[in-house]
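Q: what does this look like with NAP bound?
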Amino acid sequence: MPSLDALPKTIRTEAELDELMACPGAELIETMKRLAGDIAILGIAGKMGLSLGTLAVNAIKAAGLRKQVYGVSRFSDPTAIAALEKAGVVPIRCDLLDRTATSALPKVPNIVFMAGRKFGTVGEEALTWAMNTIVPAHVCEHFSKSRVAAFSTGCVYPLVPTGSIGSVEEDRPDPVGEYAQSCLGRERTFEYFSRINGTPVCLFRLNYSLDLRYGVIHDLARTIWEGRTVNRNVGYFNAIWQGDANSQALRALEVCASPPAVLNITGPEKISVTASAETLGRLLDKPVTFTGAPCATAYLNNASRSHRLFGYPRVPLAQVIDWTAEWIKQGGRSLGKPTHFEVSNGKY
Ligand SMILES: NC(=O)c1ccc[n+]([C@@H]2O[C@H](COP(=O)([O-])OP(=O)(O)OC[C@H]3O[C@@H](n4cnc5c(N)ncnc54)[C@H](OP(=O)(O)O)[C@@H]3O)[C@@H](O)[C@H]2O)c1
């Protein structure tokens, strides 16, 4: 197994990437020793879930424990089932919009909630609201005695001036557009049930996870590699290596409280689109062209609280930029799921 203490210079294959992403740090292994009972990851079949599930299994093994990790999704892509089984995660097919089906899930004490809907919201707003508010209600009803680390998004805050320190957890949410509003609805649903049932919850406000196959750095690198123009209307963003985000999501199970704990989850840098694109251009040996001029505001979250709890991310941003440039040069796979980080009107 690779080590987080000696990061590789390059990552050549998806197997190497997946193995690194699922490599548990010492703190996560200790969390597993303290955490009683099995874990269920709801909405596991997306961009982050398989790597999060594998990380949980590896941390449990490294702690010398026997805990089951369940992975729940509809499995729209059935190949995810075999990948989960190979990783040691027990897949359970369930549509969480179905209250009866949700009530048949095994009642495990630790829940990581990842199911959600973002892209395609414009024109199908009702489905987004149902996914982001009714599903959490089903989950809270069934898992009222569990602790729940619930993925949320930094988009529950408004865009803030790029010269500011970024949104902190005490700031009042003021989401722009129906997707972000429905995400605040998700948070409020978890908060409501946490307050009435005493369910411990952590609202995990994530800003841009970075994988080599998707994420803002991937999007920038691919745009430059293909000779397209980089849109820098939104001039700054925050991001975190997916392995670090996943590790923090599992460690957040220990932070759950009633009423809910709230954590901003991202890296320490305010990343400039212009500067990161120019670095990628150099590494890719390609010219970079821009459109637009950075506007005065952006989604910027201040994650000092989570850094104090969990430490800084183990994989530095500069390393992710190097790895991504190499990945793109070698023709590494893309998930084909652009982040649309350049959107500032909340319309997805
Ligand atoms: N990735 C990021 O950078 C980022 C940033 C901010 C917030 N987040 C939030 O973090 C969470 C995890 O991120 P992600 O990128 O892995 O999300 P994702 O790619 O959208 O994955 C979520 C998965 O949930 C499953 N799902 C959707 N509806 C479901 C239903 N009715 N019943 C059961 N499962 C359902 C889907 O798999 P099936 O189709 O197989 O059911 C989907 O692939 C999401 O809530 C996302 O909004 C992510």
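Residues 43, 45-49, 73-76, 95-97, 114-116, 118, 131, 135, 151, 153, 206, 208-209 surround NAP (CB under 6 Å). Residues 42 and 72 are 5 Å apart (CA to CA).
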